[in-house]
Design brief:
This protein has 358 residues and is mainly beta. The protein is built from three helices and 19 strands. The strands form four sheets. An eight-stranded antiparallel β-barrel has the order 8-9-10-11-12-13-14-19. Strands 1-3-5-4-2 form a five-stranded mixed beta sheet, covered by helices on one side. The protein has a two-stranded antiparallel ribbon with strand order 6-7.
Length: 358
Protein backbone atom coordinates (compact mmCIF):
# COMPACT_ATOMS: atom_id res chain seq x y z
CA UNK A 1 0.00 0.00 0.00
CA UNK A 2 2.77 2.48 0.84
CA UNK A 3 4.31 1.98 -2.62
CA UNK A 4 0.93 2.56 -4.22
CA UNK A 5 0.52 5.83 -2.30
CA UNK A 6 4.05 6.83 -3.26
CA UNK A 7 3.25 6.16 -6.93
CA UNK A 8 0.04 8.21 -6.72
CA UNK A 9 1.92 11.09 -5.08
CA UNK A 10 4.64 11.07 -7.72
CA UNK A 11 2.08 10.99 -10.52
CA UNK A 12 0.16 13.90 -8.97
CA UNK A 13 3.17 16.13 -8.48
CA UNK A 14 4.66 15.35 -11.89
CA UNK A 15 1.44 16.60 -13.51
CA UNK A 16 1.66 19.90 -11.64
CA UNK A 17 3.85 22.82 -12.71
CA UNK A 18 7.40 22.98 -11.33
CA UNK A 19 7.72 25.82 -8.79
CA UNK A 20 10.92 27.47 -7.56
CA UNK A 21 10.69 30.43 -5.18
CA UNK A 22 13.48 32.47 -3.60
CA UNK A 23 12.85 35.03 -0.82
CA UNK A 24 15.29 37.70 0.36
CA UNK A 25 13.02 39.33 2.95
CA UNK A 26 10.56 37.51 5.22
CA UNK A 27 6.99 38.73 5.72
CA UNK A 28 3.87 37.31 7.30
CA UNK A 29 1.83 35.01 5.08
CA UNK A 30 -1.26 36.67 3.56
CA UNK A 31 -4.75 35.21 3.65
CA UNK A 32 -5.82 32.96 0.78
CA UNK A 33 -8.54 35.44 -0.24
CA UNK A 34 -6.10 38.37 -0.53
CA UNK A 35 -6.04 39.82 -4.06
CA UNK A 36 -2.56 39.84 -5.54
CA UNK A 37 -1.83 42.59 -8.06
CA UNK A 38 -0.23 41.43 -11.32
CA UNK A 39 1.95 43.68 -13.48
CA UNK A 40 3.79 42.89 -16.70
CA UNK A 41 5.77 46.09 -17.13
CA UNK A 42 8.09 47.87 -14.69
CA UNK A 43 6.68 51.18 -15.93
CA UNK A 44 3.30 50.26 -14.36
CA UNK A 45 4.74 49.92 -10.85
CA UNK A 46 4.11 52.58 -8.19
CA UNK A 47 7.09 54.33 -6.66
CA UNK A 48 6.79 52.66 -3.25
CA UNK A 49 7.19 49.01 -4.20
CA UNK A 50 9.78 46.66 -2.66
CA UNK A 51 11.07 43.46 -4.21
CA UNK A 52 11.24 40.65 -1.64
CA UNK A 53 11.96 37.65 -3.89
CA UNK A 54 11.31 35.79 -7.12
CA UNK A 55 9.22 32.84 -8.24
CA UNK A 56 9.41 30.62 -11.29
CA UNK A 57 6.51 28.44 -12.47
CA UNK A 58 7.94 25.92 -14.96
CA UNK A 59 7.43 22.53 -16.59
CA UNK A 60 8.57 19.20 -15.12
CA UNK A 61 8.44 17.55 -18.54
CA UNK A 62 5.27 15.68 -17.52
CA UNK A 63 3.16 18.68 -16.54
CA UNK A 64 -0.38 18.67 -17.95
CA UNK A 65 -2.30 21.23 -15.87
CA UNK A 66 -0.42 24.32 -17.03
CA UNK A 67 -2.70 26.73 -18.88
CA UNK A 68 -1.97 30.41 -18.29
CA UNK A 69 -4.71 30.92 -15.70
CA UNK A 70 -3.51 27.93 -13.63
CA UNK A 71 0.14 28.98 -13.82
CA UNK A 72 -0.72 32.55 -12.82
CA UNK A 73 -2.73 31.29 -9.84
CA UNK A 74 0.27 29.20 -8.73
CA UNK A 75 2.40 32.35 -8.81
CA UNK A 76 -0.20 34.23 -6.76
CA UNK A 77 -0.20 31.47 -4.14
CA UNK A 78 3.59 31.72 -3.89
CA UNK A 79 3.23 35.48 -3.47
CA UNK A 80 0.73 35.13 -0.61
CA UNK A 81 2.89 32.51 1.11
CA UNK A 82 5.86 34.90 1.15
CA UNK A 83 3.84 37.97 2.16
CA UNK A 84 4.03 39.60 -1.29
CA UNK A 85 0.89 41.41 -2.42
CA UNK A 86 2.01 41.99 -6.03
CA UNK A 87 3.73 40.22 -8.92
CA UNK A 88 5.80 41.63 -11.76
CA UNK A 89 5.90 39.09 -14.61
CA UNK A 90 9.41 39.38 -16.04
CA UNK A 91 9.14 36.46 -18.48
CA UNK A 92 6.25 34.56 -20.04
CA UNK A 93 7.01 31.55 -22.24
CA UNK A 94 4.16 30.21 -24.34
CA UNK A 95 3.48 26.61 -25.38
CA UNK A 96 4.83 25.77 -28.83
CA UNK A 97 4.84 22.81 -31.19
CA UNK A 98 8.54 21.91 -30.86
CA UNK A 99 8.96 22.35 -27.13
CA UNK A 100 7.01 22.58 -23.91
CA UNK A 101 3.22 22.44 -24.08
CA UNK A 102 2.95 24.62 -20.94
CA UNK A 103 2.75 28.29 -20.16
CA UNK A 104 5.77 29.20 -17.98
CA UNK A 105 6.40 32.43 -16.12
CA UNK A 106 9.09 34.12 -14.04
CA UNK A 107 7.98 36.85 -11.67
CA UNK A 108 9.31 39.22 -9.03
CA UNK A 109 7.58 39.08 -5.62
CA UNK A 110 6.68 42.62 -4.53
CA UNK A 111 5.30 44.48 -1.48
CA UNK A 112 3.12 47.53 -2.22
CA UNK A 113 1.49 49.44 0.61
CA UNK A 114 -0.62 51.88 -1.44
CA UNK A 115 -4.29 50.80 -1.36
CA UNK A 116 -4.83 52.43 -4.78
CA UNK A 117 -3.28 49.35 -6.34
CA UNK A 118 -5.33 46.84 -4.35
CA UNK A 119 -6.96 45.31 -7.42
CA UNK A 120 -6.04 42.56 -9.86
CA UNK A 121 -4.94 43.80 -13.27
CA UNK A 122 -2.97 42.41 -16.18
CA UNK A 123 -2.02 45.23 -18.51
CA UNK A 124 0.16 43.38 -20.97
CA UNK A 125 1.34 39.84 -21.44
CA UNK A 126 4.89 39.22 -22.66
CA UNK A 127 5.35 37.10 -25.76
CA UNK A 128 9.09 37.45 -25.92
CA UNK A 129 11.88 37.56 -23.37
CA UNK A 130 14.93 39.00 -25.11
CA UNK A 131 15.04 41.82 -22.59
CA UNK A 132 13.91 41.65 -19.01
CA UNK A 133 10.84 43.86 -19.44
CA UNK A 134 10.22 43.23 -23.11
CA UNK A 135 6.63 43.28 -24.38
CA UNK A 136 5.19 42.47 -27.75
CA UNK A 137 2.07 43.18 -29.73
CA UNK A 138 -0.12 40.40 -28.32
CA UNK A 139 -2.32 41.96 -25.66
CA UNK A 140 -3.84 39.96 -22.81
CA UNK A 141 -6.62 41.61 -20.82
CA UNK A 142 -8.43 40.48 -17.69
CA UNK A 143 -12.19 40.02 -18.05
CA UNK A 144 -14.84 39.82 -15.37
CA UNK A 145 -14.44 36.06 -15.08
CA UNK A 146 -10.70 36.12 -14.49
CA UNK A 147 -9.85 34.50 -17.83
CA UNK A 148 -7.34 35.81 -20.34
CA UNK A 149 -8.04 36.51 -23.98
CA UNK A 150 -5.19 36.95 -26.48
CA UNK A 151 -5.39 39.47 -29.27
CA UNK A 152 -5.50 38.42 -32.94
CA UNK A 153 -2.12 37.11 -34.21
CA UNK A 154 -0.43 38.30 -37.36
CA UNK A 155 -2.44 37.68 -40.51
CA UNK A 156 0.25 38.01 -43.16
CA UNK A 157 3.81 36.77 -43.60
CA UNK A 158 6.47 37.71 -46.15
CA UNK A 159 9.56 35.52 -46.59
CA UNK A 160 12.67 36.02 -48.71
CA UNK A 161 15.65 33.68 -49.25
CA UNK A 162 19.00 33.89 -50.95
CA UNK A 163 20.83 30.60 -51.41
CA UNK A 164 23.78 28.69 -52.76
CA UNK A 165 22.22 25.98 -54.93
CA UNK A 166 23.39 22.59 -56.17
CA UNK A 167 21.75 20.64 -58.97
CA UNK A 168 21.82 16.89 -58.36
CA UNK A 169 21.57 15.53 -61.93
CA UNK A 170 24.36 13.22 -63.06
CA UNK A 171 26.61 14.17 -66.00
CA UNK A 172 26.11 12.43 -69.38
CA UNK A 173 28.50 9.73 -70.52
CA UNK A 174 31.33 10.30 -73.01
CA UNK A 175 32.68 13.57 -71.56
CA UNK A 176 36.36 14.31 -71.06
CA UNK A 177 37.69 15.53 -67.70
CA UNK A 178 37.54 19.21 -68.71
CA UNK A 179 33.91 18.95 -69.80
CA UNK A 180 32.97 17.09 -66.63
CA UNK A 181 34.54 19.85 -64.52
CA UNK A 182 32.72 22.49 -66.55
CA UNK A 183 29.32 20.82 -66.03
CA UNK A 184 30.06 20.37 -62.34
CA UNK A 185 30.61 24.11 -61.94
CA UNK A 186 27.57 24.88 -64.10
CA UNK A 187 25.35 22.83 -61.74
CA UNK A 188 26.28 25.13 -58.84
CA UNK A 189 24.53 28.49 -58.84
CA UNK A 190 22.69 31.14 -56.86
CA UNK A 191 18.95 31.26 -56.23
CA UNK A 192 16.49 33.58 -54.53
CA UNK A 193 12.98 32.98 -53.29
CA UNK A 194 10.10 35.30 -52.36
CA UNK A 195 6.87 34.13 -50.70
CA UNK A 196 3.75 35.82 -49.38
CA UNK A 197 1.24 34.06 -47.10
CA UNK A 198 -2.07 34.71 -45.44
CA UNK A 199 -1.97 32.95 -42.06
CA UNK A 200 -4.75 31.34 -40.08
CA UNK A 201 -4.22 31.80 -36.34
CA UNK A 202 -0.62 32.76 -37.08
CA UNK A 203 0.46 29.14 -37.72
CA UNK A 204 -0.76 27.78 -41.08
CA UNK A 205 -1.36 29.61 -44.29
CA UNK A 206 -1.60 29.64 -48.07
CA UNK A 207 0.10 32.00 -50.44
CA UNK A 208 2.27 32.40 -53.52
CA UNK A 209 5.95 31.49 -54.03
CA UNK A 210 8.39 32.74 -56.68
CA UNK A 211 11.82 31.10 -56.99
CA UNK A 212 14.68 31.70 -59.46
CA UNK A 213 17.97 29.85 -60.00
CA UNK A 214 20.84 31.22 -62.13
CA UNK A 215 24.10 29.71 -63.35
CA UNK A 216 26.46 30.53 -66.22
CA UNK A 217 29.82 29.47 -67.63
CA UNK A 218 32.16 29.27 -70.63
CA UNK A 219 34.36 26.47 -71.90
CA UNK A 220 36.95 27.17 -74.61
CA UNK A 221 38.85 25.21 -77.25
CA UNK A 222 36.28 22.50 -77.78
CA UNK A 223 36.38 20.27 -80.86
CA UNK A 224 33.34 18.60 -82.42
CA UNK A 225 33.64 16.12 -85.27
CA UNK A 226 30.52 15.49 -87.36
CA UNK A 227 29.64 12.18 -89.04
CA UNK A 228 31.15 13.34 -92.34
CA UNK A 229 34.49 14.05 -90.64
CA UNK A 230 34.10 17.85 -90.48
CA UNK A 231 35.70 19.35 -87.36
CA UNK A 232 34.62 22.50 -85.54
CA UNK A 233 36.73 24.25 -82.90
CA UNK A 234 35.58 26.98 -80.56
CA UNK A 235 33.81 27.89 -77.32
CA UNK A 236 30.53 26.99 -75.66
CA UNK A 237 28.69 29.29 -73.25
CA UNK A 238 25.67 28.67 -71.05
CA UNK A 239 23.45 31.16 -69.22
CA UNK A 240 20.80 29.15 -67.37
CA UNK A 241 17.70 30.44 -65.58
CA UNK A 242 15.25 28.08 -63.87
CA UNK A 243 12.09 29.80 -62.58
CA UNK A 244 9.20 28.60 -60.44
CA UNK A 245 5.90 30.24 -59.54
CA UNK A 246 2.92 28.66 -57.84
CA UNK A 247 0.65 28.36 -54.80
CA UNK A 248 2.34 27.43 -51.55
CA UNK A 249 1.38 26.11 -48.11
CA UNK A 250 3.25 26.91 -44.88
CA UNK A 251 3.10 25.49 -41.36
CA UNK A 252 5.02 27.49 -38.76
CA UNK A 253 5.28 28.27 -35.09
CA UNK A 254 3.59 31.54 -34.20
CA UNK A 255 4.76 34.76 -32.57
CA UNK A 256 4.60 33.25 -29.07
CA UNK A 257 7.57 30.93 -29.64
CA UNK A 258 10.36 32.30 -27.46
CA UNK A 259 13.61 32.12 -29.44
CA UNK A 260 12.38 31.72 -32.99
CA UNK A 261 10.07 29.86 -35.33
CA UNK A 262 10.44 26.55 -37.14
CA UNK A 263 8.57 26.20 -40.42
CA UNK A 264 7.71 23.75 -43.21
CA UNK A 265 6.71 24.81 -46.75
CA UNK A 266 5.31 22.96 -49.76
CA UNK A 267 4.62 24.53 -53.15
CA UNK A 268 3.36 23.13 -56.47
CA UNK A 269 3.45 25.18 -59.64
CA UNK A 270 4.92 26.10 -63.03
CA UNK A 271 8.63 25.36 -63.58
CA UNK A 272 10.40 26.87 -66.59
CA UNK A 273 13.92 26.36 -67.98
CA UNK A 274 15.88 28.73 -70.21
CA UNK A 275 19.46 28.51 -71.46
CA UNK A 276 20.79 31.37 -73.57
CA UNK A 277 23.76 29.48 -74.96
CA UNK A 278 26.24 29.97 -77.78
CA UNK A 279 27.84 27.22 -79.85
CA UNK A 280 31.03 28.33 -81.63
CA UNK A 281 29.77 31.92 -81.49
CA UNK A 282 26.23 31.16 -82.76
CA UNK A 283 23.40 31.87 -80.27
CA UNK A 284 21.00 29.05 -79.43
CA UNK A 285 18.10 29.57 -77.02
CA UNK A 286 16.90 26.39 -75.29
CA UNK A 287 13.62 26.42 -73.35
CA UNK A 288 11.29 23.98 -71.62
CA UNK A 289 8.65 23.78 -68.91
CA UNK A 290 6.74 21.36 -66.72
CA UNK A 291 5.17 20.92 -63.29
CA UNK A 292 7.54 21.82 -60.44
CA UNK A 293 7.69 21.21 -56.69
CA UNK A 294 9.37 23.02 -53.80
CA UNK A 295 9.63 21.58 -50.30
CA UNK A 296 11.39 23.59 -47.60
CA UNK A 297 12.16 23.62 -43.91
CA UNK A 298 13.91 26.19 -41.75
CA UNK A 299 14.33 27.85 -38.40
CA UNK A 300 14.23 31.63 -37.99
CA UNK A 301 15.60 33.43 -34.93
CA UNK A 302 13.54 36.34 -33.66
CA UNK A 303 15.26 39.71 -34.08
CA UNK A 304 12.17 41.76 -33.22
CA UNK A 305 8.64 40.54 -32.43
CA UNK A 306 7.82 40.62 -36.16
CA UNK A 307 11.18 40.18 -37.93
CA UNK A 308 13.12 36.89 -37.99
CA UNK A 309 16.27 35.59 -39.72
CA UNK A 310 17.66 32.07 -40.01
CA UNK A 311 18.73 29.10 -42.14
CA UNK A 312 16.43 27.46 -44.68
CA UNK A 313 16.84 24.32 -46.82
CA UNK A 314 14.74 23.95 -49.98
CA UNK A 315 14.37 20.97 -52.30
CA UNK A 316 13.38 22.30 -55.72
CA UNK A 317 12.79 20.67 -59.05
CA UNK A 318 11.04 18.71 -61.71
CA UNK A 319 11.94 17.10 -65.04
CA UNK A 320 11.68 18.26 -68.67
CA UNK A 321 10.34 15.81 -71.24
CA UNK A 322 10.95 18.02 -74.26
CA UNK A 323 13.13 21.00 -75.18
CA UNK A 324 12.63 23.75 -77.73
CA UNK A 325 15.67 25.12 -79.63
CA UNK A 326 15.63 28.54 -81.32
CA UNK A 327 18.56 29.19 -83.66
CA UNK A 328 20.27 32.34 -84.89
CA UNK A 329 18.28 32.46 -88.14
CA UNK A 330 14.96 32.35 -86.23
CA UNK A 331 14.15 28.74 -86.96
CA UNK A 332 12.95 26.52 -84.11
CA UNK A 333 13.04 22.83 -83.31
CA UNK A 334 11.28 20.87 -80.55
CA UNK A 335 12.92 17.67 -79.38
CA UNK A 336 11.09 15.09 -77.28
CA UNK A 337 13.40 13.41 -74.81
CA UNK A 338 13.43 9.69 -74.14
CA UNK A 339 12.73 8.25 -70.71
CA UNK A 340 16.46 7.91 -70.04
CA UNK A 341 17.22 11.41 -71.34
CA UNK A 342 14.78 13.58 -69.34
CA UNK A 343 16.39 16.85 -68.22
CA UNK A 344 16.67 16.61 -64.43
CA UNK A 345 16.21 20.03 -62.77
CA UNK A 346 16.21 18.87 -59.14
CA UNK A 347 18.49 20.78 -56.78
CA UNK A 348 19.14 21.66 -53.12
CA UNK A 349 19.09 25.30 -51.95
CA UNK A 350 21.05 26.17 -48.77
CA UNK A 351 19.61 29.56 -47.88
CA UNK A 352 19.68 32.45 -45.49
CA UNK A 353 16.06 33.44 -44.98
CA UNK A 354 14.20 36.41 -43.54
CA UNK A 355 10.56 36.49 -42.40
CA UNK A 356 8.38 39.50 -41.66
CA UNK A 357 4.99 39.22 -39.97
CA UNK A 358 2.38 41.99 -40.11
Amino acid sequence: MKYFLLFISLAFFSCSPKIKTSVSEKHEKLEDTYKVIVFNSASELPSNFKKIGTTKIGDTGFTTNCDFYTVLEKAKIEARNTGANALLITEHLYPHDLGSTCHRINADLLRIEDSEYNKSIIAKDSVLSVNKFNTASNEVVSNNFGNTVASKPSGFLLAANIAQSFRVASSPDGLNSEQKEYLKKLKSGVSYDISAYYLKEGKTGFGLKYNVYKSSGTIDNQIITEDDGTEYNGSFTDDITISFIGPSFIMTEDERARVGEANLELALGYLSYQNKSTVFGSPVKITGSNLGVIGGMGYHFRITPHFLVGPQVNFVGGVLKKLKYKYEDGSTETIKLGDDDFENLWRIDLAISAKFRF
